[in-house]
Amino acid sequence: MRRSTPPWLLMASLGLLSSAGTALASSHREAPFITTHPKVDGSDFYMFRSYEQGRSGYVTFIANYQPLQDTYGGPNYFFMDTHALYEIHVDNNGDGIEDMTFQFKFHDTDEGLSVNAGGKSIPVPLTNIGPVTATNMSAQNVVETYTLTLVRGDRRHGQMSKVTDAASGSDSFAKPLDNIGAKSIPGYADYANTFIHTINIPGCSTPGKVFVGQRMDGFVVNLGETFDLVNIKYPVQELAPPGVNARNDEPNSLADKNVTSLALEVPISCLARATDPVIGAWTTASIRQAEVINSTPESDKSVASVGAKSDPNDAMVAGGAWVQVSRLGAPLVNEVVIGLPDKDRFNHSQPKNDAQFADYVTNPSLPVLLQVLFGGAGVLAPNVYPRADLVEVFLTGVPGLNQPQKVSPAEMLRLNTSTAITPVASQNDLGVIGGDVAGFPNGRRPIDDVVDIALRAVMGVLLSPFDGSAQDPDPASDASRQLHYTDGAEPNPANYLTVFPYLMTPLAGSPNSATN
Q1: pLDDT digits 0-9 by tens, 199-222
Q2: Partners of residue 84 on adjacent β-strands
């Protein structure tokens, strides 16, 4: 960092406000245990009223997993964990407990493709051995499918019903291959669109939609420089030279990365109660309590013939109860807010038990640490603590915006489903603080620049009054709290779709067109 405190407190604000329901960066590798299980690492969670034309009566959820995907990550690419349970939870009465849970479970089938090598049939090492299309998958070596189950009530003991394909009636859904390149999958955008399924949701009179597949990571953040102690050239607009847009003066660290999205569109009438339009939601991933790796003993391999068709799911045997290992409502909460001793505990916990983490929100450690390390002006005065303003955004929803009529403090994204949709051309990426009440923290859209929102909110934009009067809680830092903080990376509307699943076609692993 080349300048004094506003930048450092800016970083602190990152921590605080991510706890307040915003984020500084995608939530990846945020806790010790999850680093060992990248397939169940949740990175971003979105919830918003669908703004695709004709779909205003729906809410779209997008749960992203397996972040930081290099486009060229073959030959196995980024299949989902067949021994994991991925879930999207919805609380529609404000008690911090799920009322509806959508469960995704994955299955891989090894097609056993082989070639004749010197008179012997030898299995190939690749995901595909020729071009693949939605109507001709004969050259596809591994087929990935998933089931979707709706649970009403407790996620483990509630009423379970299968979600089915509205066209075929099947309860198994196909997932597209990752974007290997144009020679392997010609016209990838059109190919992927065929995997958008119209679905019948038990108890809902109107069909919804589901899509699971690789997408271009839509989150925008100057990740490397931010985590290098906020080593940003112009961390506030006021420090930039005339004519320089500080919000768009640094690299987006995720510009060349893909992610796997679980996208779900559900009618509002199936989600919100008639008496209260506010819903809350979060995503989790769980694995079995016990795992046995390499289920085929070494001593048995001598009796297995080379090329015998196998099931990729048999590489591991898992059993016992489900253990939650990843949790995500507002990204980065666990990454930079929760203290190191409690990071794994947070990932294992449920929102209804969030009182145990309250001190991390009301009296966060990061601003203090940064102040000790770097000092300077612009520090929030001690009398603004505990930060009740952050508690509202983080735990209860903001009154008059997205707070349920009855609420128990619990960390999750909250959305007022009665808030009018802002048309795409008019969306403000600063959300509510930019005058667009359909944006973050009232839910979260792909375009919302939650990094800049977080930095400004944690620096006190939500504190009031800040007019220098006797009631002003922190007159010494009024100026810094009103600065235009930024990480320097601004979302570009051209990098998002305006229709479901909203995140852009993933970047191809091969930059070449199919020339031969």
Answers
A1: 999 999 999 999 999 999 999 999
A2: 287
